[in-house]
Amino acid sequence: MLWRVSWNFLPTMVNLCVKRLTQSNMCSRCKAVQRESKDYLEWLTWIFTRCTELQRRVFVCKIWVLWLDRNRNLHKGKSYSGTEATNFAKHYICELDGLAKRKIITVGEKEKWKSPDDPTIKINFDASFNCMSFTSASAIVARNANGEVIISKFYLHTAVGMAFDAKAIACFEFKLTGIEMGFTDVIVEGDSKSIINKCMTRSIDKSQIRTHIKNIQKEKERFQSLVFHFVPRSANQLAHNIARTSLKQKKMVYLMGEVPSYTKQQ
User: Fold this and answer.
1) The domain 121-256 is classified under which CATH number: 3.30.160.250, 3.30.420.10, 1.20.1340.10, 3.40.190.10?
2) Taking the chain, what is the end-to-end CA distance rounded to the nearest angstrom?
3) Is 83 exposed, middle or buried (0-12, 13-18, 19+ CB in 10 A)?
């Protein structure tokens, strides 16, 4: 609004009359004839150079209240009283002060992978999907309470419909790995919240990945303890990097006690 004032672009009755948008330059509120003023910029400059920062703040807020009052009077036929306008400006300034006093919440360190309690084995899974060739790569990394890698596996899959299917297939791989290695106490972590929630529920899944979810739920009894956890990408970075690189290189790898050389453990 101050920019409009400085360039005399406010829709005053004088300006509207000059642009032939109205036939009268009489103020709709006080009924006085408005006269053209060409010193808006000089007036604003004079005000701002002689006021303190606090005074400039109050001045701008009061100008804004006058502009709101003008619109209210024009469109609704109502106007603020002097007390109402003053209180409105005071409350608005107090609100701005309250925002300034709020503590700035900074984003802390990203969540990292955490080792499980002994003798639990934590299995992280992820998948990478190529929408052009409809192929995907599944990555499984199993680690113990010391953070040592027990096994890492990466598979390639063809004829995968969408990324959602790729995530479900990767999650299903944990079951095969756990049964194969004889794990009984397992925590499964992934960064796909939808897949994790579907695996945790006992109800029948009716989505397009229901076959994979049904197979996962069917094998829960093969483990003494099986817990599903959703984690952010930062805590699942190792599995994510393996899946992404495996899809690019189109390699299937099965490693015991280590991960590929191109990855860095978290």
Assistant:
1) 3.30.420.10
2) 53
3) exposed
10-residue mean pLDDT profile of the chain (266 residues): values are 58 70 65 57 75 82 79 78 80 75 56 91 93 90 93 88 86 83 91 89 82 82 88 92 88 86 62
Say if residues 139 and 153 touch (Cβ distance below 8 Å).
yes
Q: Which residues contact 250 (CB under 8 A, 6 or more apart)?
A: 156
| Domain extents in the chain | 2-101, 121-256
Its pTM stands at: 0.57
**Phi, psi (deg, nearest 5) at residue 180:** -60, -40
Q: How many residues does the chain have?
A: 266
Q: What is the CA radius of gyration of the chain?
A: 33
Considering only the C-alpha atoms of the chain, give the largest distance between any 2 of them, rounded to a whole number of Å.
Answer: 93
Q: What value, to the nearest 5°, has the Cα angle with vertex 56 and ends 55 and 58?
A: 65
Alpha-carbon distances of 61 from 46, 65, 90, 176, rounded to whole Å: 17, 6, 9, 67
136 in Cβ contact with 157 (< 8 Å):
yes
